[in-house]
Automatic annotation (TrEMBL):
Belongs to the NAD(P)-dependent epimerase/dehydratase family. Dihydroflavonol-4-reductase subfamily. GO terms for molecular function: oxidoreductase activity, acting on the CH-OH group of donors, NAD or NADP as acceptor. Residues 4-259 form the NAD-dependent epimerase/dehydratase domain. Keywords: Oxidoreductase. This is Major facilitator superfamily protein-6. InterPro entries: Epimerase_deHydtase, NAD(P)-bd_dom_sf, NAD(P)_dehydrat-like. The keyword Oxidoreductase applies.
Length: 342
């Protein structure tokens, strides 16, 4: 089928494009600059432009951002909306996070409804951030797709550190509301990944590793040497290749319509990441903490406080989750390859 992927330069989108091409689909992806589009084309030498092409969408926060991009010949059947800001380097959460996330989501749904009647399924990349709520993280609570984060736009005005969580929660809520109010002819599926590890693309930049892999690169390069930092509350991982397969399965499977899918491979601690790197990359051992520096802060505070059920994802999408070890080893290998080519 002909597919549209927004934010093709992104970490997750790179893998979604890979899975789509391998499955025989053709892909058009939106990027902010021609160079980013060319980088994606260069990653797939031998794939003709009719199978992999790009269009420029500079700013998804514009309400008409996708009006042109959704129109294609042959017309699109599936749309994957992955583009959304994921970083903590913002000054104005409303402008830099909430608006691109929320307007980006509603504007693509609206553009499809208006101008792309051939689209059957839209898959939106949301997050576990839209599912988990602090007040439930106790007593072994088991999260499922029925849970929603309770954050509001008002909370962000009081505490801008809630910006990313709110951007994902409010954007996903806006998507389901659009489906309910506007009743478009396409159906919606949503992917809710936790912290994503996995191989980065060869054109990525070491100075701006995607947010979720920053932790692995920091540990590899000595960032935890004098003391392993606490794992924090985000102590669940999933591999990017599982996330990408889930996106494509969510588009292809009729029974995925109208559902959210938690993408969670399991718990991790920073200490485990250190141990996996130490075992598999002897040359990096001198950068890693040992003894007390390793024991001190590496354990997660939340193991046992809450967990997640990924039953729906396994049953409907058929996902088998990659192990933490495999994910970290492949992440580290890809980061080493980037270092060598820099
Ligand atoms: P990346 O930062 O690698 O990718 C984000 C993508 O969104 C990039 O293509 C970026 O373009 C694009 N983008 C951001 N803001 C804008 C904007 N205003 N206008 C146009 N394009 C924009 O992150 P990931 O691949 O990790 O994230 C992809 C999606 O997955 C996001 O929706 C994120 O919230 C979600 N997610 C990620 C998780 C993770 O741990 N990685 C966990 C859960 C959800 P450019 O490259 O030009 O900046």
């Amino acid at each position: 089928a002909r597919t549209l992927v927004t934010g093709g330069s992104g970490f997750i989108a790179t893998h979604v494009i890979d899975v789509l091409l391998k499955a025989g689909h053709s892909v058009v992806t939106t990027v902010r600059t021609p160079q980013k589009g060319q980088n994606i084309r260069d990653m797939h030498p031998g794939v003709p432009q009719s199978k992999l092409d790009f269009v420029i969408v500079e700013d998804i926060a514009q309400p008409d951002a996708f009006d042109q991009a959704v129109v294609s010949d042959p017309p699109f059947e599936y749309v994957f909306h992955t583009a959304s800001p994921f970083h903590y380097k913002y000054k104005d959460a409303e402008k830099e996070l909430l608006q691109p996330a929320i307007i980006g989501t509603t504007s693509i749904l609206h553009a499809i409804k208006k101008s792309a009647p051939s689209v059957k399924r839209v898959v939106v990349t949301s997050s576990v951030a839209a599912v988990r709520s602090k007040e439930k993280n106790v007593g072994g609570y088991v999260y499922t797709e029925a849970d929603w984060c309770s954050v509001t736009a008002e909370d962000v005005k009081k505490d801008s550190s809630m910006g990313y969580v709110a951007s994902k929660t409010l954007a996903e809520q806006a998507a389901w509301k659009y489906m309910k109010d506007e009743k478009p002819s396409f159906t919606l599926s949503v992917i809710n990944p936790t912290l994503v590890f996995g191989p980065v693309a060869p054109h990525s930049s070491l100075s701006s590793i995607n947010t979720s892999n920053e932790r692995v690169y920091s540990i590899m390069t000595g960032g935890a040497k004098s003391g392993c930092p606490p794992t924090g509350t985000n102590a669940l991982y999933v591999d990017v290749r599982d996330v990408a397969i889930a996106h494509v399965a969510a588009a292809e499977k009729p029974e995925a319509a109208g559902k959210r899918f938690l993408l969670i491979g399991g718990h991790f601690t920073n200490k485990q990441i250190v141990e996996i790197i130490a075992e598999s990359f002897p040359s990096l051992k001198e950068n890693l903490p040992t003894g007390e520096a390793l024991e001190k802060g590496g354990e997660a505070s939340i193991v046992g406080d809450y967990t997640f059920s990924n039953a729906q994802t396994r049953e409907v999408l058929g996902i088998e989750f990659t192990s933490l070890k495999q994910s970290i080893v492949d992440t580290a290998k890809s980061l080493q390859a980037l270092e060598q080519s820099a």
